[in-house]
């Protein structure tokens, strides 16, 4: 099977006044054609850095230490400016996290979404607007034709989020990268958007890389799951592997924290105790050691090995599992 | 929006009234007897009293001020003490010259300063950015009257390319335009630098916003992102800066008009103050204040118009 996107050994650091923050370390990830891959992990684990790297829009203080991001066998990180512009928004479309700030406040929605279709030379202005109207109907924006002439602040957060998704779907991309696409939506709308994303996958044979906190979204939509912790991939596998046969202690802890799986009434929602280590000086051993319930002396000293659990499809990095 | 515009205009009128009052008191407090200055040391007390009575200066100050305001409302700015001409006539002859100079100065500064600021952002932290930065700061640092004297010496006196004095032949647009070049250059130069720096700073802030990342993530070119997506937002604070700066431009035009012997409100005010020609001083100050206040009101309205978020709040 071909991969729409392949990330090999990617390490990205941020240069800050108080030292180098090692935000991503040796990340490996594959997004097969026509599949949906979910990245889960708590805040600060490097999900958004990974997303910015995929479209080569890292902030100016980011340094790519090593690794490649391959799209159609070309490394995105070393692509020419010209090729990058075709990649962004045409090959790879993105939905960003915060719908409130995702659109330009002084331009109408119609102007912006028409602009975003600049790669589609065969569509004239009228056709571009027609496409937006169709897409808005699909994502559930009422009165799309009138609303094209409105400014972003005239829409609710949920509507803006849907418009952001509509903008990405307008591109009919090979790969859709979505950062928390349903966080700002209510449950009904979320279900509609998930349905829409699945439809996009089926109808256009596009791949989706979805970044989320929401395990329900992952279970609904994804074929593969990558669990990230403190800038590293700690476990990877199919959706069944992760939900039914989680191996890494972090994955297990994360699943236990999902309010949806709680069986008994509690006063406090379960959490994973402790904090992410300081990424300026990541520990020499396992990054999860300080919060792990099964920690041993070995965990704090040597880096954990990669443990293959099923022919390279499901693997994790852990001393405990390797035993 | 209309309601807002009305409020802004009313505020402008209040500012105007207050300025006139301050100006009136200031002129009143200037030491020296206007009659003595006007008539010379050998004037008799009767001649002085006669002149003061003709100018209405023997009345108490509040009466003088209220009759002054009433006269203004009738379009009467009083008479020139020396020539006995209507002040309003003198001002309507000179004011257009100053307005042309002010708009020409800020106009070319905008036309050059804004693109320079944008290019600084497109090529930020590069060689181009540094060169623009050094030039801008130098332009800001040189006082406009120094620039005026140097361009006068170089282009008018040495090279004889452009006229040194005057505002050009009446009715001859080409000659008027040629006479405008040097003073407008001198006044506007500092503004080129100022605007370039302001636009750069303001735009760099905008460039850090999320919606710019969205525009880039959809493959729009950097030039398009800067000029179409960031510029309009970056210019909102610059509009108010320009409006405030119009005051500086008008005072800059005093120097430029004196150096280039250009008829204009700055030149007129200067001569009127030195010869204690109070009606002319008051008239000139009032007209420049009206000019300045209307520019600020227009800037406020323009800012509200540029930003749809503000526009809606003001509905």
TrEMBL record, chain A:
Its main location: membrane. SMART domains: AAA (SM00382). SUPFAM superfamilies: P-loop containing nucleoside triphosphate hydrolases. It is found in: Cell inner membrane. Pfam families: ABC_tran, oligo_HPY. Keywords: ATP-binding, Cell membrane, Membrane, Nucleotide-binding, Transport. The keyword Signal does not apply. It is a peripheral membrane protein. Signal peptide: none annotated. The keyword Protease does not apply. CDD domains: ABC_NikE_OppD_transporters. Belongs to the ABC transporter superfamily. This is ABC transporter ATP-binding protein. It comes from the Bacteria. Residues 5-255 form the ABC transporter domain. GO terms for molecular function: ATP binding. InterPro entries: AAA+_ATPase, ABC_Ni/Peptide_Import, ABC_transporter-like_ATP-bd, ABC_transporter-like_CS, Oligopep_ABC_C, P-loop_NTPase.
From TrEMBL, chain B:
Keywords: Cell membrane, Membrane, Transmembrane, Transmembrane helix, Transport. Its main location: membrane. The keyword 4Fe-4S does not apply. InterPro entries: BPD_transp_1_N, MetI-like, MetI-like_sf. Residues 95-303 form the ABC transmembrane type-1 domain. It is a multi-pass membrane protein. Gene3D superfamilies: MetI-like. The chain crosses the membrane at residues 9-30, 100-122, 134-157, 177-196, 229-260, 280-305. It is found in: Cell membrane. The keyword 4Fe-4S does not apply. PANTHER family: DIPEPTIDE TRANSPORT SYSTEM PERMEASE PROTEIN DPPB-RELATED. Belongs to the binding-protein-dependent transport system permease family. This is ABC transporter permease.
């Amino acid at each position: 099977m071909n991969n729409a996107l392949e990330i090999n050994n990617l390490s990205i650091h941020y240069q800050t006044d108080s030292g180098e923050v090692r935000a991503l370390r040796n990340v490996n990830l594959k997004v097969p054609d026509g599949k949906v891959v979910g990245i889960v992990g708590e805040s600060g684990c490097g999900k958004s850095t990974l997303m910015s790297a995929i479209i080569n829009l890292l902030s100016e203080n980011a340094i790519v230490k090593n690794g490649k991001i391959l799209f159609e066998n070309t490394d995105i990180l070393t692509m020419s400016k010209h090729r990058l512009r075709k990649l962004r928004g045409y090959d790879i479309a993105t939905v960003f996290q915060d719908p409130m700030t995702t659109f330009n406040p002084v331009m109408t929605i119609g102007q912006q979404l028409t602009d975003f279709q600049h790669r589609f030379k065969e569509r004239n202005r009228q056709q571009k607007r027609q496409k937006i109207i169709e897409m808005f109907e699909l994502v559930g924006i009422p009165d799309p034709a009138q609303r094209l002439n409105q400014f972003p602040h005239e829409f609710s957060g949920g509507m803006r989020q849907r418009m952001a998704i509509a903008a990405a779907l307008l591109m009919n991309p090979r790969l859709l990268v979505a950062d928390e696409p349903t966080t700002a939506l209510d449950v009904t709308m979320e279900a509609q958007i998930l349905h829409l994303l699945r439809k996009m996958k089926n109808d256009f044979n596009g791949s989706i890389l979805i970044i989320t906190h929401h395990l329900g979204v992952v279970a609904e939509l994804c074929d593969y799951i990558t669990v990230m912790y403190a800038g590293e991939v700690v476990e990877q596998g199919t959706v069944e592997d992760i939900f039914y046969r989680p191996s890494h202690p972090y994955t297990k802890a994360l699943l236990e924290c999902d309010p949806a799986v709680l069986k008994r009434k509690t006063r406090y929602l379960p959490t994973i105790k402790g904090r992410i280590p300081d990424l300026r000086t990541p520990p020499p051993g396992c990054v999860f050691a300080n919060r792990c319930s099964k920690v041993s002396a070995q965990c704090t000293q040597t880096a954990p090995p990669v443990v293959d659990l099923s022919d390279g499809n499901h693997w994790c990095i852990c001393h405990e599992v390797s035993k | 929006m209309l309601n807002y515009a009305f409020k802004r205009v009313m505020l402008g009128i209040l500012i105007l009234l207050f300025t006139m009052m301050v100006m009136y008191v200031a002129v009143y407090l200037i030491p020296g007897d206007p009659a003595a200055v006007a008539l010379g040391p050998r004037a008799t007390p009767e001649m002085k009293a006669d002149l003061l009575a003709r100018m209405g200066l023997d009345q108490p100050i509040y009466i003088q001020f209220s009759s002054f305001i009433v006269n203004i409302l009738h379009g009467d700015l009083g008479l020139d003490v020396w020539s006995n001409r209507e002040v309003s006539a003198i001002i309507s002859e000179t004011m257009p010259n100053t307005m042309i100079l002010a708009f020409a100065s800020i106009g070319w500064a905008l036309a050059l300063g804004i693109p320079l600021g944008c290019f600084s952002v497109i090529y930020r932290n590069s060689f181009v950015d540094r060169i623009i930065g050094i030039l801008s700061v130098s332009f800001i640092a040189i006082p406009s009257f120094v620039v005026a004297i140097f361009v006068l010496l170089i282009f008018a006196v040495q090279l004889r390319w452009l006229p040194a004095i005057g505002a050009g032949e009446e009715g001859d647009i080409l000659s008027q335009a040629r006479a405008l070049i040097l003073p407008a250059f001198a006044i506007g130069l500092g503004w080129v630098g100022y605007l370039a720096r302001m636009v750069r700073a303001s735009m760099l802030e905008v460039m850090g916003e999320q919606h710019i990342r969205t525009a880039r993530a959809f493959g729009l070119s950097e030039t398009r992102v800067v000029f179409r997506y960031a510029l309009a937002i970056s210019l909102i604070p610059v509009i108010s800066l320009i409006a405030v700066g119009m005051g500086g431009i008008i005072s800059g035009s005093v120097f430029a008009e004196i150096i280039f012997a250009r008829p204009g409100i700055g030149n007129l005010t200067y001569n009127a103050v030195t010869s204690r020609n109070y009606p002319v001083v008051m008239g000139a100050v009032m007209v420049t204040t009206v000019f300045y206040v209307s520019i600020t009101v227009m800037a406020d309205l323009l800012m509200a118009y540029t930003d749809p978020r503000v526009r809606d709040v003001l509905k």
